[in-house]
Amino acid sequence: MSAGSVAVVVSEGIGIPSWDLYELSIPCTVFGKPQSDLADPWYDLRLCGTGEPPADSGLLLRTPYGLDDLVGADTVIVPSVPDSCVEEGKPLPQALITALRRAYEGGARMVSLCTGAFALAEAGLLDGRPATAHWMHTALLAERYPKVRVDDSVLYVDDGDVLTSAGLTAGLDLCLHLVRRDLGAHVANQLARRMVVPAHRPGGQAQFIDMSVPAADDEGLAPVLDWARTRLDQPLTVDDLARRAAMSPRTFYRRLQAATGTTPLQWLLDQRLGRARILLESTDLPIEKIGELSGLGTANNLRRHFLRHLGISPSDYRRAFPRTTPASSP
């Protein structure tokens, strides 16, 4: 369990349009503000400038760190690239591409938010890999880099040491996912609560959700979802949830999918996996008991879901998050 160092690429000289500040601010907010009560030490954040001549437009930033500082960082994040490089095909700085390759070869975890995927693709780091970007740019990404397996339907893609996200809020989802990977579900959930954002949106959730149901009506799902979260250890069906929501199963299914981009059964599985992760991190309960409390059943069933969805066994997951304080039962 380790936070490590995070290097964020800042395109100094190209100029940063105001609409790109959101992607840049996301890693600064998630990794840059110390949260010593959640994890100590917290992340070591460095903004690394590209060192280009000043541009005539956009917001210009100056930082003491340069591209050489990408090498040696535990995580490298490219928040976005200039619109001219995406839409007009303007070449990205060769020094940036070289630095990204060197960082990856040095063992860094490579991450892009939104159009930052174009930089990773140009460096060849996405060849043969699944990747995503904002749905408005995925067709161009696929056309320009045919070796990349572009998926335009997901919020983010975790391919181990290379991760990519769609634009805007999906970048926040990915950064919180990184915290969850590094420091555990409890820390990520507490950080999300402080930021007043959803604790976890799975990467496979749809980028574009057809909100055919008015937003005000979607709030009516909150009580039944909260009710279900307190009963994850019990058998729950779509019929149970629909009955609690005073809807037909068909209507409930449609409403939940419209609001979250996922099905009721997948939503339940995500909640149960999250519950199991917190129990593994925070208690010494046997694996069998954790399977029961999370609603995932037997130890074998828990193990099967962890391997399929997280790529790790429950026991290995627990070893990755050793506790320094005595455990307490939930």
TrEMBL record:
Pfam families: DJ-1_PfpI, HTH_18. Residues 222-320 form the HTH araC/xylS-type domain. InterPro entries: Class_I_gatase-like (IPR029062), DJ-1/PfpI (IPR002818), Homeodomain-like_sf (IPR009057), HTH_AraC (IPR018060), HTH_AraC-typ_CS (IPR018062), INH-QAR (IPR052158). It comes from the Bacteria. SUPFAM superfamilies: Class I glutamine amidotransferase-like, Homeodomain-like. Keywords: DNA-binding, Transcription, Transcription regulation. This is Helix-turn-helix domain-containing protein. It comes from Nonomuraea bangladeshensis.
